[in-house]
């Protein structure tokens, strides 16, 4: 069993469960198919499982490491964005709503996506290599956002929280009384959701 499934914390875990999306952070495994680093590049992307009939052997030597996600909301929480090549239309939609939700950077559609990747890197990885989180009023958060509740990751959708697991989500619970919770999804992605981008959610 390989350590190539990604949870909402951005951690790489071992599980027999398959993912619905493919991800890339560069070459982060060794010749024994063991994960040796959290990332190699700043362009963390989310890809489709099949593209133009291409077939890859998982974790080939010196080839980028194939990662997998339960759904797109999980990928966004981990800090990944849509791929420009295999998801061109999704990428363009992502960029449009990211710009709409984050006007403070002064970017436009002609701005290289690498500029967005630079911002995302600061939003997902702290100086000590831990996951960046921040507190926010739960009632101000949009659908598709992941939060920490009882030390576990929950997806927010339609005023309910859904506990994440590699196999899927548990039955939703009502929003807790707590005014604020720690948010896992990077801030600029949350702003993008508020601007109208709706991520794919398996719930």
Regions with little confidence, pLDDT below 50 for 5+ residues: none
Order of helices and strands: EEEEEHEHHEEEEEEEH
Overall average residue pLDDT: 96
**Overall morphology:** globular
Helix-strand makeup class: alpha+beta
Radius of gyration: 16 Å
Please provide the count of β strands.
Answer: 13
Strand content: 15-25%
Give your account of this protein's structure.
The protein has 203 residues and is α+β, with helices and mostly antiparallel strands. The chain has a domain at 134-186. Helices cover 20% and strands 22% of the residues. The protein has 4 helices and 13 strands. The protein has helices at residues 72-78, 88-101, 113-124, 187-194, and strands at 5-6, 12-13, 21-24, 45-47, 67-69, 81-82, 134-137, 146-149, 152-157, 160-165, 168-169, 173-174, 180-183. Strands 7, 8, 9, 10, 11, 12 and 13 form a 7-stranded antiparallel sheet that branches. Strands 5-3-4-6 form a 4-stranded mixed sheet. A two-stranded antiparallel sheet has the order 1-2. Strand 1 (5-6) and strand 2 form a beta hairpin. Helix 2 (88-101) packs across helix 4. It is globular and about 50 Å long.
């Amino acid at each position: 069993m390989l350590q190539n499934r990604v949870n909402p914390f951005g951690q790489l875990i071992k599980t027999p469960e398959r993912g619905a999306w493919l991800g890339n952070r560069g070459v982060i495994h060794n010749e024994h198919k063991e994960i040796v680093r959290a990332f190699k590049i700043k362009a963390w992307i989310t890809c489709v499982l099949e593209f133009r009939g291409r077939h890859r052997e998982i974790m080939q030597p010196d080839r980028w490491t194939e990662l997998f996600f339960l759904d797109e909301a999980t990928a966004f929480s981990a800090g990944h964005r849509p791929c420009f090549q295999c998801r061109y239309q999704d990428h363009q939609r992502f960029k449009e709503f990211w710009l709409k939700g984050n006007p403070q950077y002064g970017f436009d559609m002609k701005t290289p996506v690498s500029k967005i990747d630079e911002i995302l890197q600061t939003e997902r990885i702290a100086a000590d290599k831990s996951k960046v989180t921040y507190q926010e009023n739960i009632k101000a958060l949009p659908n598709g956002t992941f939060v920490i509740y009882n030390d576990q990751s929950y997806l927010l959708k339609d005023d309910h929280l859904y506990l994440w697991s590699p196999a899927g989500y548990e039955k939703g619970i009502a929003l807790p009384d707590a005014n604020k919770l720690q948010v896992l999804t990077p801030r600029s992605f949350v702003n993008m959701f508020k601007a109208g981008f709706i991520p794919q959610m398996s719930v």
